[in-house]
Design brief:
This protein has about 230 residues and is mainly alpha-helical. The protein folds into two domains: about 5-115 and about 210-230, no CATH class; about 130-195, no CATH class. It contains eight helices and no strands.
């Protein structure tokens, strides 16, 4: 999954998401979740990070199951209960809701944990034809975020050193951060203009984002193969 073109990966996973939204089938949603887990493990995503990220997802899925079980409408199953060995439509409704939470979270985390953010923006510019000025702005924003986090910690430590206790989202912490963020953005914009970063100028690429055969195969499977398989099966 890491070697796939980010733009093609995003389109393919969105197609799978829309397919799951159109089908009320817990087995299909759980299959998508399991495949997402396998794909993350094959892509060498750290197991500890996966467990920490999926912990709130499992809690939300459990809550959705009991919500669907408790407030299910009568006779809402699209198939007979005895076919799937399910006792009532309430269980089916709970499984439908909880499995969707797992499937959507699995697909989202699969994309987030196996995609480089810089390559994602560059692929948007190359394959999806996003204007260069927006791509430069997104890349610049990614560079500012670490400085914002560091400045937030410094401001909070300064208040703590003076014996002033403030809550995490206090305006006393956010106002200096907002002022410095505006200053950083202005300085960055001036620096980019002085170095010739212009959205109207055609530029060469040091490491171009390529589209390989595997990208087209992945897109065809997600956009054509899976919908056809679900339709005929």
């Amino acid at each position: 999954m890491r070697s796939l073109n980010p733009a093609f990966k995003l389109i393919g996973l969105l197609a799978v998401t829309f397919l799951l939204a159109a089908r009320h089938d817990p087995l299909l949603s759980l299959s998508a979740f399991v495949i997402s887990l396998i794909a993350m493990l094959v892509s060498r995503v750290r197991l500890k990070a996966m467990l920490l990220l999926f912990l709130p997802v499992f809690l939300a899925a459990a809550g959705m199951f009991f919500t669907g079980y408790r407030f299910a409408a009568g006779n809402s199953m699209p198939v007979r209960a005895e076919i799937l060995h399910i006792g009532s439509s309430a269980v089916w409704n709970g499984l439908t809701l909880s499995s969707r939470v797992l499937a959507y979270a699995g697909l989202g985390l699969l994309f987030a944990l196996t995609t480089d953010r810089i390559e994602l923006i560059r692929s948007f510019q190359k394959q999806l034809h996003v204007p260069a000025i927006f791509a430069y702005g997104l890349l610049a924003a990614w560079g500012i975020f670490p400085h914002m986090a560091l400045e937030y910690r410094r401001t909070r430590a300064a208040f703590r050193a003076r014996g002033i206790h403030v809550f995490p989202m206090s305006p006393s912490l956010l106002n200096p951060l907002l002022v410095k963020s505006v200053r950083w953005s202005e300085e960055l914009a001036i620096a980019m203009e002085s170095k010739g970063f212009d959205g109207r100028t055609t530029r060469s690429e040091f490491a171009p984002v390529l589209v390989r055969t595997s990208d087209w195969v992945f897109l065809a499977v997600c956009c054509l193969g899976l919908p056809a398989a679900v339709f005929f099966l």
